[in-house]
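Morning run. Coffee first, then this:
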Amino acid sequence: MSNGDQVLTVDVMENGRHTFSLREICERGECHAEFVITLVDYGILAPLDEAQEARRWQFDVLALSRLRTAQRLQRDLDLNLPGLAMSLDLLDEVQSLRREVARLNQRLRHQLGE
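And here it is:
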């Protein structure tokens, strides 16, 4: 997560907002609803519930952060949607592995008495 994402998350939480409608996530992400709908269709973003009508979708802060990351990847690397989906999945996996390594390092330090 970049510093910009952290600031955005803090801003959202300070305002007491935990979920966003399709319109609100588009406003915060500065994008069109069609783009968000396409990202949902490709599994890049996921609404919190599976409401059939897109206008009833709700997104969380993590979805907003993922939207921003998707926009940066698409802009900076000119990725198509399948490439974008794969890249985000790989980034998620790297982040998960980093957390696991940190957890294991902490356990090891504790075991060694450091």
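The helical segments are 3-14, 22-29, 33-41, 61-77, 81-112. Good start to the day.
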